[in-house]
């Protein structure tokens, strides 16, 4: 089976949103409050991610089966942690957001493939400090993060309902 990663184009937006909504359903079925109700990543945000060339998609043959954002600007929500501290406190880091894989993929291990690409892309563009966060109940994402040797650095709260997040950092 052919898999590859590319930057999303505006023509991909409808499928990007479909994959996001598949992720919403996965989280909902697992009773994880992340990405629920008013906190679903909005179409306009994903559109802007694409226009900023920060949105990447994982493609199986010709079908988009994964979505993630690799943001190169500092994340406002990461300025102050509720607990813990960053391994290296810098304003020069990349952040991975909105990471999801379609449940309809034909092979396992695609999250690892996709995350590897995002880390490589961060490195290629000068990123030696990569950060990511997830909800405390999102054990699957925590497992993926741990496979890549991210260090858990603490917690933060984003200004949304159920906004408590675990934060992680990877120094390359």
TrEMBL record:
One Pfam family from the record: Acetyltransf_1
Keyword terms: Transferase
Gene3D superfamilies named among the record's database cross-references: 3.40.630.30
GO molecular function, one term: acyltransferase activity, transferring groups other than amino-acyl groups
Keyword Ribosomal protein in annotation: no
Record flagged with keyword Transferase: yes
Domain N-acetyltransferase, chain residue ranges per copy: 3-172
Top-level taxon of origin: Bacteria
Protein name: GNAT family N-acetyltransferase
Organism: Vagococcus silagei
């Amino acid at each position: 089976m052919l898999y590859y990663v590319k930057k999303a184009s505006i023509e991909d937006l409808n499928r990007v949103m479909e994959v996001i909504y598949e992720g919403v359903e996965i989280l909902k079925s697992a009773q994880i409050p992340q990405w629920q109700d008013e906190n679903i990543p909005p179409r306009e945000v994903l559109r802007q991610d694409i226009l900023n060339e920060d949105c990447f998609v994982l493609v199986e043959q010709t079908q988009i089966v994964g979505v993630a954002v690799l943001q190169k600007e500092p994340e406002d929500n990461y300025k102050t942690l509720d607990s813990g501290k960053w391994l290296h406190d810098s304003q020069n880091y990349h952040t991975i957001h909105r990471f999801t894989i379609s449940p309809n993929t034909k092979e396992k291990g695609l999250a690892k493939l996709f995350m590897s690409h995002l880390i490589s892309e961060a490195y290629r563009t000068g990123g030696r400090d990569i950060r990511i966060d997830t909800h405390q109940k999102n054990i699957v994402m925590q497992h993926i993060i741990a496979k890549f040797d991210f260090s858990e650095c603490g917690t933060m709260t984003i200004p949304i309902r159920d906004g408590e997040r675990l934060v992680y950092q990877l120094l390359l």
